[in-house]
Amino acid sequence: MDHEHITLLSLPPSPFAMSVKMALAEKGIKYEVFEEEAATFPVVKTDLLLRSNPVHKQVPVLIHRGLPVAESLVILEYIEQTWPASDELDLRKALLPQSPYERSVAQFWADFCNKKFWETSLLIMKKLDGEQIQAWNDTAQLYITLDREMRKLPYGKPFFFGEHLTIPDLVLAPLVSWMSDT
Ligand SMILES: N[C@@H](CCC(=O)N[C@@H](CS)C(=O)NCC(=O)O)C(=O)O
Q1: Rounded distance between C-alpha atoms, residue 123 and residue 121, angstroms
Q2: Based on the domain organization, do 57 and 115 belong to the same domain?
Q3: Is the CB of 166 under 6 A from ligand 1?
Q4: Which residue's CA is the closest to the ligand 1 atom numbered 16?
Q5: Which atom of ligand 1 is nearest to the CA of 115?
Q6: Domain-embedded: residue 1
Q7: Which of 23, 32, 34, 93 is the most exposed place for a label (fewest CB within 10 A)?
């Protein structure tokens, strides 16, 4: 399959870009990556990034057929809509459940993880004593909430929807591993 020039604008430590890389890998889609320069702070942004995401000026941006798609949650859904599972066997690679209600549950948890874990990660990263302890406590609370609510889902382990990776897993996994490095 020709995937028609797919480029991902990324930044090496970005958990949001990592979610997109995992989704593309899961679908078996080939793409090229342009990594922004991470060595400088604040990050010096390329013209391509500024042109592709003029509003937030952030990675990740997926450029498909010359058209930019920004914001990781939007990109993940774009990937699922553009390269959907085509037959029964392929459903293992569907990044969202099939029913509208289950999709809404997946979108809820993807949004929760994207926002909440990032908020506490940023505070942990700043390494300000009081704020950092509070942020670790808040993170623990997020895990407790997640654990409690995931137990109510009828799908069992190991992922949000049972046996297969879906978008909320792709959002959560890089944030958790990224946080454990901070
Ligand atoms: N809500 C955005 C967050 C993206 C984000 O925070 N990207 C960071 C890298 S992890 C970035 O580009 N930082 C550079 C900057 O904000 O100047 C998403 O989910 O894609």
Answers
A1: 5
A2: no
A3: no
A4: 58
A5: 1
A6: no
A7: 32
pLDDT at 182: 60
Residue type, 107: Q
Residue 105: predicted pLDDT: 96
Ligand 1 within 6 A of CB of 121: no
pLDDT at 3: 54
In the reported structure, the alpha carbon of residue 154 is separated from the centroid of ligand 1 by a whole-number distance in angstroms of 33
Same domain, 80 and 104: no
Ligand 1: distance of its center to the CA of 113 in Å?
A: 14
Collapsing DSSP to helix, strand or coil, 63 comes out as strand
What ligand 1 atom has the least distance to the C-alpha of 14?
Answer: 10
Flag residues of the chain having pLDDT under 50. 1
| CATH classification of the domain holding 135 | 1.20.1050.10
Cβ neighbours for 16, distance < 8 A, ≥ 6 positions apart: 59, 60, 72, 114, 174
Neighbour tally for 13: CB within 10 Å: 12
| Residue found under tokens 């300000």 | 128
- Rounded CA-CA distance 122/179 in Å is 9
What pLDDT score was predicted for residue 85? 83
**Domain limits at 161?**
96-180
